[in-house]
């Protein structure tokens, strides 16, 4: 009876060990029990030893259960943390930004130039260039303006920024649009010296041409004596041409490295001109005009033709090379005979004036020009002229009275004749 009890005690222990997840650990226990089965004390010790194995297994099971129980709770918390991570909130605005236009993506310098545009406008206090209200990189006319300034500086953003700032300040101060639209110029000084024509191609494209007829200068000091007045007149003519380019109506961006449709032709006619090299007033006015146009009108020139050029004009071309870039001077074409000019434009040849090899009337008959007014005599000169006329009339009346009162005197006729001679010379 006493020997059977240890067997019953050992069996449940083995069963309990088999029923636990850690079956490998409990499998070793029966082997130890079999080896020491005869002495009872050893059996009790084995039984006691087996019990902790069961307890350890139970403890491991409890820990596993606890871990298993905690896992769903942690799993429930994890999705909440994933759903609203701090980084996701910061990345949302970047993802929502619109894509950069292709012309900016291809030209980082242009993109950088646009980043500086607000500061440029603020610094200059003016936001209009050639009739274009400067806006942002989504506005085609604005993009075209900035491309021209960037081109003129060979892609150097800093230099382009400096030039655009100067040009905007100049336009604010000078108000060139008003010079072209509402200002009148002395016909004696500038009449017949500048014209504007617009020729149309068969496909509807337009070619804008400005003409400067320096051979029409009547008096050097009168035309060039006041340098500031001359520059204003020249700017007014230029603004008329810029307006015809219609840059504010652009709907597409020009190719930075391609053809630019917003450019004009300039023609300078020096027929019968032989004084330019020697006169300091003309040289000063020419230099000032080049400086202004280089700053305020970059990349608006397609080609420039100097026709009927005398040999002594070499100094002018040398001066232009100093102030203008190589890209600009490449556009200059001297032509000794003005009648060959129309050959340069085969599709427009018939629209050029006859004197330049075309079939159209002279510029004076069909071309546009700035507002001109005829000279008015100064008030003092006009008053003096009236007084002189009155004196002459009174003196003539007195002589006539004397002649009537003394008809026998034959000397009256020579007196009247002498008075009439200066009047004839004056005419």
TrEMBL record:
Catalytic activity: a 1,2-diacyl-sn-glycero-3-phospho-(1D-myo-inositol)(in) = a 1,2-diacyl-sn-glycero-3-phospho-(1D-myo-inositol)(out)
Cofactor(s) needed for function: heme b
Keywords: Cytoplasm, Endoplasmic reticulum, Heme, Iron, Lipid transport, Membrane, Metal-binding, Microsome, Transport
Organism superkingdom: Eukaryota
Record-annotated CRAL-TRIO domain positions: 228-364
Protein name (database record): Phosphatidylinositol transfer protein SFH5
Function: Non-classical phosphatidylinositol (PtdIns) transfer protein (PITP), which exhibits PtdIns-binding/transfer activity in the absence of detectable PtdCho-binding/transfer activity. Regulates PtdIns(4,5)P2 homeostasis at the plasma membrane. Heme-binding protein that may play a role in organic oxidant-induced stress responses.
Family per record: Belongs to the SFH5 family.
Topology versus the membrane: Peripheral membrane protein
Biased composition (Low complexity): 47-87
Keyword hit for Phosphoprotein: no
InterPro entries linked to this entry: CRAL-TRIO_dom, CRAL-TRIO_dom_sf, CRAL/TRIO_N_dom, CRAL/TRIO_N_dom_sf, Sfh5
Alphabetized Pfam families for the sequence: CRAL_TRIO, CRAL_TRIO_N
SUPFAM superfamilies per the UniProt record, alphabetical: CRAL/TRIO domain (SSF52087), CRAL/TRIO N-terminal domain (SSF46938)
UniProt feature, compositional bias: Basic and acidic residues: 384-405
Subcellular location: Cytoplasm; Endoplasmic reticulum membrane; Microsome membrane
Annotated spans, Disordered: 1-98, 375-427
Species annotation: Aspergillus lentulus
């Amino acid at each position: 009876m006493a020997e059977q009890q240890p067997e019953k005690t050992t069996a449940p222990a083995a069963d309990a060990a088999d029923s636990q997840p850690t079956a490998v650990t409990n499998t070793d226990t029966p082997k130890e029990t079999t080896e020491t089965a005869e002495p009872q004390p050893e059996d009790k010790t084995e039984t006691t030893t087996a019990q902790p194995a069961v307890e350890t297994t139970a403890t491991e099971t409890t820990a596993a259960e606890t871990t298993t129980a905690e896992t769903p709770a942690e799993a429930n918390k994890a999705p909440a943390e994933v759903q609203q991570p701090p980084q996701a909130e910061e990345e949302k605005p970047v993802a929502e930004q619109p894509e950069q236009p292709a012309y900016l993506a291809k030209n980082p310098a242009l993109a950088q130039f646009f980043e500086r545009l607000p500061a440029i406008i603020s610094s200059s206090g003016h936001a209009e260039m050639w009739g274009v209200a400067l806006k942002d990189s989504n506005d085609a006319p604005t993009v075209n303006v900035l491309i021209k300034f960037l081109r003129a500086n060979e892609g150097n953003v800093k230099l382009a920024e400096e030039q655009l700032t100067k040009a905007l300040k100049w336009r604010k101060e000078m108000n060139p649009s008003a010079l072209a639209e509402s200002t009148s110029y002395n016909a004696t000084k500038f009449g017949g010296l500048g014209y504007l024509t617009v020729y149309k191609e068969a496909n509807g494209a337009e070619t804008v041409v400005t003409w400067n007829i320096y051979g029409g200068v009547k008096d050097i000091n009168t035309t060039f004596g006041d340098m500031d007045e001359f520059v204003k007149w020249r700017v007014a003519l230029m603004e008329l041409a810029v307006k015809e380019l219609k840059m504010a109506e652009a709907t597409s961006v020009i190719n930075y490295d391609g053809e630019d449709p917003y450019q004009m032709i300039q023609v300078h006619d020096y027929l019968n001109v032989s004084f330019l090299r020697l006169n300091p007033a003309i040289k000063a006015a020419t230099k000032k005009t080049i400086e202004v146009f280089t700053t305020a009108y970059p990349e608006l020139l397609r080609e420039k033709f100097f026709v009927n050029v005398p040999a002594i004009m070499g100094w002018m071309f040398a001066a232009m090379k100093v102030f203008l870039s190589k890209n600009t001077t490449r556009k200059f074409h001297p032509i000794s005979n003005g009648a060959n000019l129309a050959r340069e434009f085969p599709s427009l040849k018939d629209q050029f004036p006859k004197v330049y090899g075309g079939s159209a009337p002279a510029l004076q008959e069909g071309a546009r020009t700035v507002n001109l007014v005829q000279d008015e005599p100064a008030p003092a000169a006009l008053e003096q002229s009236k007084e002189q006329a009155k004196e002459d009339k009174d003196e003539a009346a007195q002589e006539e009275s004397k002649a009537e009162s003394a008809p026998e005197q034959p000397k009256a006729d020579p007196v009247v004749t002498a008075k009439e001679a200066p009047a004839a010379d004056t005419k």
